[in-house]
Design goal:
This is Laminin G domain-containing protein. The chain contains 1 helix and 24 strands. It is mainly β and 328 residues long. It folds into 2 domains: 101 residues, no CATH class; 198 residues, Sandwich (Jelly Rolls), CATH 2.60.120. A hairpin with a 2-residue loop joins strand 6 and strand 7.
Length: 328
């Protein structure tokens, strides 16, 4: 279940005060439907209404009852350097329509203007990505493409599974990356062959190579990467590879998002310094399609993505994958 949270801040010459206002628990927003959100400020009271049925309010203390707006953020503030940005989440992912503030249409123009309006990673229309399900394939169509999923939780062991369809034009690309406290886990295609890498970033590293040549010939390859406390296993179709992990790699503590297909710009730089995988330093993303994605036996996919770039969804109809993931 997803809820709306509003962070309200007021400030006078003596102190700054913040209050958090959350929609009612029954107001679920994770149903791939359009929802209305209305926020009003009247003297000391800030009220929020979701879908005209969920009503919540908060009282702002102090003597100043005027709302002074210096900067207004719509969607998120990730990566923006502003002194008033505190306790802000990673940002909204989805579609907004008719965003109005005091009768001003905030979406009337999506073109940036110096010293007035900044626009980042926003486009017109509502992409079908936001109505996709876990059963829809993900198509990575550029050298900058990637998706970011929640952290790959690791205790004793972790498992990643998917079906992979490489592009017929590319023999190299990063498929998976998960950072650890030191080093991390990489799954990449080198010269058409899948390679799994587990390392600390300090010279201790284990690599597994597949003999199978991946072809972009309408073939989906089932992939399973299994990391145990003392070993790493890689399975592609019927081929199985296993290697022992050195003591330095036992109980690898993964952290941060699980990246598929590629990395965001800053993460490319961080991962390159760890020295894992030959393609990370070159910034080469996987080009092709992934489907049937599972993390620790739990199905995941586009509804769980927090950040993405240069991807489309392949929708399944009557057992066939239409769109670009049918054959790449």
């Amino acid at each position: 279940m997803c809820q709306v949270t509003l962070l309200v801040s007021s400030q006078n010459q003596f102190r700054q005060c913040e209050r958090s206002l959350r929609s009612e628990r029954g107001a679920s927003l994770s149903d791939l439907m359009w929802h209305s959100v209305d926020v009003t400020h009247n003297h000391h009271r800030v009220s929020m209404t979701v879908d005209r049925s969920s009503h919540t309010r908060v009282h702002m203390p102090g003597t100043d009852v005027e709302l002074s707006v210096d900067t207004l953020f719509v969607g998120g503030a990730l990566g923006l350097n502003h002194p008033q940005i505190v306790n802000v989440s990673s940002g909204f992912r989805g579609c907004l329509d008719e965003a109005v503030f005091n009768e001003l249409n905030l979406l009337s123009s999506l073109r940036p203007y110096a010293n007035y309006e900044s626009v980042h990673e926003v486009s017109l229309g509502c992409s079908h990505l936001f109505s996709a399900t876990e059963h829809d394939a993900v198509h990575f169509f550029s050298s900058k493409a990637f998706i970011s999923l929640p952290p790959w939780e690791s205790e004793q062991e972790v498992v990643f599974e998917c079906e992979l369809h490489p592009s017929g034009n590319e023999d190299d690309g990063l498929v998976l990356y998960s950072a650890a406290l030191q080093g991390g886990v990489v799954l990449e295609i080198r010269g058409g062959h899948l390679v799994a890498v587990v390392g600390t970033g300090e010279g201790s590293k284990t690599e597994l190579y597949s003999d199978i040549k991946l072809h972009g010939n309408h073939t989906w390859y089932p992939i399973r990467l299994h990391i145990l406390p003392h070993a790493v296993q890689l399975k592609i179709g019927e081929e199985f590879r296993q290697a022992s992990l050195s003591p330095a790699l036992h109980l690898l503590q993964l952290r941060g998002p699980l990246f598929l297909g590629g990395l965001e710009d800053q993460t490319w730089s961080d991962a390159s310094r760890a020295g894992l995988g030959k393609l990370i330093g070159r910034g080469v993303s996987f080009r092709g399609c992934l489907r049937e994605i599972k993390v620790n036996a739990q199905r995941t996919g586009l509804p769980h993505v927090s950040i993405s770039r240069d991807i489309t969804a392949g929708f399944q109809h009557h057992g066939r994958f239409e769109d670009s993931c049918r054959g790449a």
